[in-house]
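ARCHIVE CARD
Drawer: 12
Card no.: 0347
Subject: one protein chain, sequence and derived structure
Cross-reference: see card 0346
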Amino acid sequence: MPKYLSILICVTILLLIIPASVLAISSTNYYKENGKIYDDWDICRTDGTGEDGFFQISQTGFRPIIVGESLGENADTAYRIGEQFTGKIPDIHQRAEKIFVFARDTVRYTSDKNQFNFEEFAQNADELATTIQDEGVAYGDCEDYAVLLAVMYKGAGFRSAIVMPPNHAATLVYLPEYKKANQRLSIDGEPGWIWAEATGGNNPFGWMPERFMGSGLSAFEIENEAITGLETPDKPATTVTKSKGSSGVHISPFFIVIGLMALLSLFRRRRRV
């Protein structure tokens, strides 16, 4: 067997057996304590509950503190993307729709377990937005969509909120004159809030899933306030690996085998000539 053909077969076998998780990027802006991952704001990324949780969920409500990593003096990529929509689209209803479509079409729903190998791992808005700018697409679950949209809407001059139905998170935008929504909600008695559910690839802006209508909802309006960054904790940094298997170019093992068979056939024909 020719040497180059042997090399081709070896490469093909490696493509078939190397797991997608080997193709990964890492960040070291985290530390680990008591089995949980914290960032350099001392926010727990792997748990949304309690004083240090990314959503500070308690028996009385929640506060999505992680948005403060991307607002106020911490405003960066996600907020600037929202600002850019303001200059391009003066009509506020069209602007709200376009921001929604941007998040819906550039973030692909992926569970934290598949992406980070944690049951929960929250990303802040700038982490998602930077990945979108660098790679054209990012990956996240419902709270990641909600945080990204809430920050971009603030950058675009809207009032925004995060809403938590059971086992879910979404964004609300204050648009009292918007007519296309299937449901309009109130926060603290103030009507005019529109549901932004970007986790489905075909969802329109303003569509609220029927399963959440009439269910217990908790909402928190976002203010343009930063949380105070801390000095780098005096603790060893830990590496969080983000799987990139779903963002690379995928070739089905079936097609790899078919391609190899075709090459082998080609080589055989050439040897017969």
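Annotation on reverse: Residues 10-24, 245-273 have pLDDT under 50 and may be disordered. Residues 28-221 form a domain with the C8orf32 fold fold (CATH 3.10.620).
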